[in-house]
Design a protein that fits this description.
563 residues, globular
């Protein structure tokens, strides 16, 4: 096993945890410099025993073989798959120094990259904190990118450049890869085209909020702070009231947000002293910077991998009915700067300097109407017929076939390390091995830790019959029944719960989101009276409302290529 499946995590109370498939687990004491530069992870449950490679290989092979059908009901629009990835990049990071730079300090670590939901992946440290390169000359607007003409199918709009529809890119350097690099705080948001377009939409949302506040008379020296406050609050509202209810058992969500957390960084009981109030060990003050449980980042919140489609009805040009080509997942990787080359053709995606385009071609601009359901808004022209609409795959123990062959750039493997082969490219295998390397607790251990009803043996092996089925006589069965990998266990819980996280996965996800919202510098949890101001008259604000505001409610901006 090569370095492709090695990760390091600074786990509070343990040190720097890393390993590979041979060592399985190693924990070393950090230097002061190392501890500053490592994203703060924590451990919510007990340590597990790792994962047997034969079991990981067998499960991963089964999880990524064959077709995965669309769900029959409880359909989640595909945009939420990649919104959840965008959110993951806002919450989790294991290479903080890459984004903060060599001059990182403790204060910057807490304010610039922390396991909070404050959009630091969008804003970085701000224009006066060392990240001015992400901002326009006024230091308030965020930079935008412009697409390159790419005439296709006699669609006039593809022959034009479109400002604001690509990520901003560096534009200079000695290599194509350097010139293509997205000029954003978190390069992972250029890993695939959908998350890249999502990031570009958030840039547009911020800039529109800036313009609105400026027109209302907000003083220029207050404008960035005021805009970020509005953007972050509305973003948090979308997560709490739109994204999470689609992915997590609502009864668990409502319990956590109504009654508080019971397991993760619970509010501190205080004891008074002459020096004031001090939290008892093991508790958290609401305003403290949160940590990030590895059970969430390496286990429960990898739910989105199961939601990915293999083919998308992307836009007027790339679709399966009369388009230039279907919008395959492979192409959505190819037309990104981190995993691909932004260029057409049968290129070697392992070569970051292949291809001719340095920015996104205009024929790959997203048609947002195909990714989110705008029908509740009642706006003519923003609803597409079902055959053009993309529904996310159900959360269960299956992944679509292309995820067994990831492009090297999707995990930082281009040019830096020897080429990955075989199962090293399989996303399911990588997830299972990564969990073992940090001794993630098993699903059964976490069920006991959290006091939730565990899956029965029949559920654990067979689910609802639509996912991975393991015969009781199979050698893998014994391992699953004794200590199921947490990621697999959470997917299996969702599978038997109609496609939403339940039990262990629901409790971990709900509590970590609650803490991340509570611990953000701007927080709708700490300000429960706040309500959205940019959505519908009844106060509803969902992702479609955010997109409507960002794109000025115009069909020609939400879908520049037309029908």
């Amino acid at each position: 096993m090569k370095r492709h499946v090695r990760d390091t995590y600074y786990v509070v109370g343990e040190g720097i945890v890393d390993g590979d498939a041979d060592r399985r687990y190693r924990c070393r004491r950090p230097s002061t410099e190392a501890s500053l530069r490592k994203f703060r992870f924590s451990r919510l449950g007990p340590q597990g025993e790792g994962v047997d490679l034969a079991v990981a290989e067998a499960l991963a092979t089964r999880m990524t073989q064959g077709d995965k059908p669309d769900p029959d009901e409880e359909q989640v629009p595909s945009g939420y798959t990649y919104l959840s990835q965008f959110v993951d990049h806002d919450m989790t990071l294991d290479k903080t120094a890459v984004h903060l730079g060599d001059d990182v300090t403790v204060a910057e670590l807490k304010q610039g990259r922390s396991p909070a939901l404050d959009l630091d992946s969008l804003y970085g440290r701000g224009p006066t904190g060392g990240d001015e390169r992400f901002y326009a000359a006024d230091g308030v607007h965020l930079l935008t990118g412009t697409t390159a003409p790419a005439p296709s199918l006699d669609v006039a709009a593809t022959a034009l450049p479109h400002e604001g529809f690509d990520l901003p890119r560096v534009g200079f350097g000695s290599t194509k890869a350097a010139r293509r690099a997205a000029l954003i705080p978190d390069g992972r948001n250029d890993e695939n085209l959908v998350v890249g377009q999502t990031h570009a939409a958030f840039i547009r949302f911020h800039n529109r909020v800036v313009d609105t506040l400026a027109a209302a008379g907000t003083p220029s020296h207050l404008l960035l702070g005021a805009a970020r406050d509005v953007v972050v609050r509305h973003y948090q509202w979308v997560l709490r009231h739109d994204l999470l209810p689609r992915l997590v058992d609502p009864s668990v969500l409502d319990d956590v947000f109504a009654h508080g957390r019971r397991f993760f960084e619970v509010p501190a009981p205080y004891e008074r002293s002459p020096r004031g109030r001090a939290p008892l060990h093991g508790y958290a003050d609401p305003g403290d910077a949160p940590t990030m449980p590895i059970e969430f980042s390496v286990g429960a919140y990898r739910l989105g991998h199961s939601m990915v489609r293999d083919v998308y009805e992307w836009n007027r040009v790339f679709n399966s009915e009369g388009g230039l080509a279907p919008g395959t997942l492979a192409l959505l990787f190819q037309f990104s700067g981190t995993s691909g080359t932004l260029s057409p053709g049968p290129l070697d995606l392992g070569d970051p300097d292949a291809g001719d385009f340095l920015v996104l071609p205009s024929n790959w601009i997203a048609d947002w109407r195909r990714l989110y359901d705008f029908s509740p808004l009642g706006v003519p022209g923003l609803v597409v017929e079902p055959k053009r609409f993309n529904v996310a795959k159900r959360i269960d123990t299956l992944l679509v076939d292309p995820l067994k062959n990831l492009p090297l750039g999707s995990f930082g493997g281009r040019g830096a390390v020897p080429a990955a082969v075989g199962l090293e490219l399989n996303l399911a295998f990588r997830n299972l091995v990564r969990g073992g390397m940090v001794r993630l607790a098993s699903g059964q251990q976490m069920a006991a830790q959290l006091g939730v009803t565990p899956l029965s043996d029949a559920e654990l092996l067979g689910g609802d019959g639509s996912g991975v089925v393991v015969d009781a006589a199979d050698p893998v069965a014994e391992s699953l029944l004794a200590a199921a990998p947490l990621w697999f266990y959470c997917l299996r819980e969702a599978e038997v719960n109609g496609g939403r996280l339940a039990g262990v996965g629901a409790r971990i996800t709900a509590e970590v989101f609650h803490r991340a919202l509570e611990g953000s510098a701007t927080s709708i949890v700490r300000d429960p009276s706040w309500r959205p101001t940019l959505g519908r008259p009844d106060g509803t604000f969902e992702m479609v409302d955010l997109l409507m505001f960002a794109f000025e409610g115009r069909e020609d901006l939400l879908n520049p290529l037309g029908d």
